[in-house]
Amino acid sequence: MALTGILSWTAAQQGPPGRDRRGGPPGGFRQHTANASSPIQLVPATRQPPARSESTFQKTGASGLEVRANGIPDHRVGAFPNRGNPNSITEQGYDIVIPSDPRPAPRATSQFGPFGIALNGVMLDPGAAEYWQGDPSLGWTYEALGGAVALGIDENHAHVQPTGAYHYHGLPTLYLKQLGVGADRHSAQIGWAADGFPIYALYGYREAKNPASGIVKLQSSYRLKSGKRPTEPDGPGGTYDGAFVQDYEYVEGGGDLDECNGRFCVTPEYPEGTYAYFLTEAWPVIPRLFRGTPVPLREEGRGGGPGPGGPPGRDFGPPPGGPGGRPPFPPPPQH
User: Fold this and answer.
1) Which residues contact 333 (CB under 8 A, 6 or more apart)?
2) Helices (H), 35-184
3) 263, 280 in Cβ contact below 8 A?
4) What is the predicted pLDDT for the residue at 41?
């Protein structure tokens, strides 16, 4: 299912964006009861960023790639603050070392924090800290691109952390346009995942290891579950429509990519082959699981302080079970 728009205000959203509703559960999360996906128009990307984009990627040591970036994109952005996001874009101070010789791990894993970083120095960060009834333990996480909760996302499917960190929740539209990503060629590399494997977008070879096989738009192997969600107290009710991360399930062989939204393949940068992730048009868009062993990608930098009621350095909380615990889209709890 293609994602066609982002996030409208709902009756369940109370108070200004970024501020917790009084009387909610502990943990600093806003309360929501919305249970339906609803696409809206994205905030047009008509503004120039507040500073020049700076990013460097340099080999360090025997097995590391040092990333230094200020987190400022090299393309137009939406107006921030806006109705759904109270934060302003500011320069960050990213200094990260990711593996330069990544190896597949025995099993797919998840990690709290960004999935990767684009070559322009902007984080690829699909998660959101918005939970049904404001309670992560209930097991229902709102999908940032699902349309049930307003996050003020712009045309690049991006918005701003309380620290001022601009970050992508979905396809970075203008960045992909800059790179010439299109149906006539294999995608250029757009970034690095936290485990050190390369990230591409949308287009790859029809046959993973055959550059002469033609170009196709690669398809995710996730789909919406059929039927309806459990009702209170076990769940929010309503149809599985993409409002929640838990509305989706992985179907092996359902598309071109595995549960990590990647595959072993050849690419223009890796003619001998590599494991590679792909951003897709349909969910999860940005991958949620790692094939290798990720390192933390911290978003704390030189940005301003937290927004009203917002935790410093992020706009979403750790997955239930803590960092490195269960995947970020577990099944709803069984009662």
Assistant:
1) 138, 139, 234
2) 173-178
3) no
4) 80
